[in-house]
Amino acid sequence: MSNNYKFEGWMGLDKSSADGNMKWHSDLHTLRSGWAPANYPVVVGHEIVGKAVRVGPKAEGNIKIGDRVGVGAQSSSCLKPDCEDCSHNMEQFCAQMAPTFDANFPDGSKTYGGYANYWRGPSHFVVKIPDGIPSDEAAPMLCGGITTYSPLKRGNAGPGKKVGIIGIGGLGHFGILWAKALGCDKITAISRSASKKADALKMGADEFIATDEDKDWATHHTRSLDLLVSTVSSPNMPLPEYLQLLRTNGSFVQVGAPEDLIPPFNAFALIAKGVTVGGSAIGSPEEIREMLAMAEKKKVKAWIQKRPMDQANQAVVDMGKGLARYRYTLVNEKQL
Question: Taking Cα atoms as reference points, which of 129, 157, 154, 123 lies closest to residue 283?
């Protein structure tokens, strides 16, 4: 491979990029400035796998040229020894956390994502990809996968636990796969309709709740789950009803990121059963390594659809329409 590495990628120049108007010279929420105003131009993409072509002299992790490596949604934090988060493998919660795109590194340079020929960033957030996981399946695990693995693992999901996954999409399908691999006693998939029921059961769910098709679903399944992980991004979620599903001392964890406020709920929904409501953001590099090791050992297979990198604009449009089953992986065929 030539040593003349040219950084080119699909550039989002304004909000219209979310409608399939990126230019070659992106995550949908950022392209349309949904979570916050984007600092255009942006190159999105935060689930990146490839081979290391340059390694700095101070690089961590014993990374060598030619190694198959990846980076997820985070590419920087303060990493100071006195940082309560960074020093305890919780870099994703550091006050100086920098996402893999549309942010700035400590030196002021801008972060750009993976819809491109190359990516460059700090080695601390780069992980080696196990031999047993294909690159196209490993990539979506680095954000979509870890976003659900982390709250499940920290919520002690496993034997003796009954777990629910709300939303059967790019995030939620991973939630089912991890809950199955972790050995949970019961896995309940929750969606608005039954259109994804067959897929959810194949992924490992034991039960399926279609909230738009059973008007009494919250009553029928009350006090049935220990842990609920919500992957939905709609601000119109029936949150009070979700909380009814929890058993005593149960936990509800929100990982989907709505672009608006989540619904209010009565405090007695928490008080009456000792329920907790929390959130979770991606995971640390150490958690990602742990997740990948388990995926290789348990032969967890992400449900993906491969698309050529030159079809990125159409993939963004299709993703916005909810057509992915269940994660698009862009393949940069020029770099294979």
Answer: 154
Calpha distance 67→71 (Å, rounded): 13
Could you give the C-alpha distances from 235 to 163, 230, 249, in angstroms and in order? 22, 12, 25
Strand partners, 305: 328
User: How far is it, in rounded angstroms, from Cα 93 to Cα 180?
Assistant: 27
**3-class SS string, the chain:** CCCCCCCCEEEECCHHHHHCCCEECCCHHHHCCCCCCCCCCECCCCCEEEECCCCCCCCCCCCCCCCEEEECCEEECCCCCCCCCHHHCCHHHCCCCEECCCCECCCCCECCCCCECCCCCCHHHEEECCCCCCHHHHHHHHHHHHHHHHHHHHCCCCCCCEEEEECCCCCHHHHHHHHHHCCCCEEEEEECCHHHHHHHHHHCCCEEEECCCCCCHHHHCCCCEEEEEECCCCCCCCHHHHHHCEEEEEEEEECCCCCCCCCCCCCHHHHCCCCEEEECCCCCHHHHHHHHHHHHHHCCCCCEEEEEHHHHHHHHHHHHCCCCCCEEEEECHHHC
Q: What order of strands is seen across the sheet that includes strand 162-166?
A: 207-210, 186-191, 162-166, 225-230, 246-254, 276-279
Residue at 164: amino acid letter:
G
- Please tell me the distance from the alpha carbon of residue 147 to that of residue 103, in angstroms, as a whole number: 20
User: How far is Cα 330 from Cα 139, in angstroms, rounded to an integer?
Assistant: 9
Token match 């590495």: residue? 5
Q: What is the pLDDT of residues 118-145, one digit of tens each?
A: 999 999 999 999 999 999 999 999 999 9
Q: Band of the pLDDT at 26, cuts 50, 70, 90?
A: very low
User: What pLDDT does residue 1 have?
Assistant: 40
Model pTM?
0.93
How far apart CA 162 and CA 154 sit, in angstroms, is 14
